[in-house]
User: Fold Putative mitochondrial mitochondrial structure specific endonuclease I (SSE-1) from Leptomonas pyrrhocoris.
Amino acid sequence: MSVREKAVVLIDGPAVVHRWYHRWSYTTEKYGSEIDPKKFAFKNARFIIATAHSFDPTHLAQHLLSPQLEYAHTPKLNKIIICFDQGDGGRRQIFREYKANRAEVKRTPELLMMEKVAKRVFEEEPPHTALVVPDFDARLKTVNAEADDMIATLALYNQQNMTPTVVMSHDFDLYQLVDDLHKSYNFDIRTKHLVSEKNVIERVGVHPRLIRDFKAMAGDASDNIPGMKGIGKVRARQLLKKYGDLDGILSRGLKNETGHLSEVLAQGAKSALISRQLVDFRMCPKVLKACEAFLKRK
Assistant:
């Protein structure tokens, strides 16, 4: 009997913890239920680990999900890396208002507790199956990067090595990493759906490689990314289809378009380029070096 190939599962730590917190908060406020946030986080952390271990590379290639199993009976087959933010990757130096809306959101004691519990659960996993980044290595304390940057660094490395990879998140920025040819997929933690290139196109309207340019034009209120004033999602899709990418729009589009649209493009060019820098991933060579032995281990 052949040994099952392992997948690498990259979990967006802040995304899952915030999702748990908002579910807990909504339930307690709406129904008046007294749910222990510590137990709630513990249960969800165990479940997400079980989900991560259940991904089967053979099923992924067919865009299928493996059966979800109880944690205690889930074979520890995959390599799991959970990434947490450590800085903003220098984005606020480019645009001071980047994620300013999130800075106003209070980090409640319950949210902080859930993050602490989640990390403890993840860290208690067998060392050959899971890593918490950047916490597992003291040498990574100087890394200035978001969880997305660390995930992108590791996912792109895996693509080069044709290693089956699943990114678990609900952040569509990470759709940029979906690549069927290189066995790189996304698992939406909200819908519980596996996301392939076809699914990205159906959901957003552009190919994964154009997500960055799409957001640079349409903007993103959740991250306070300005985009181009006067260009919404529909117009952004139309222009990308017509000119190929943002560079094509800012070169050929500025010359070819007339009237109001020409003015909008000219006035929004600088903002689009700044927005693209905000959406761009920052590569984290220190993170890759620290995780490389774990990724190569059979």
Observations:
- The chain has a mean pLDDT of 93.
- Residues 97 and 134 are 25 Å apart (CA to CA).
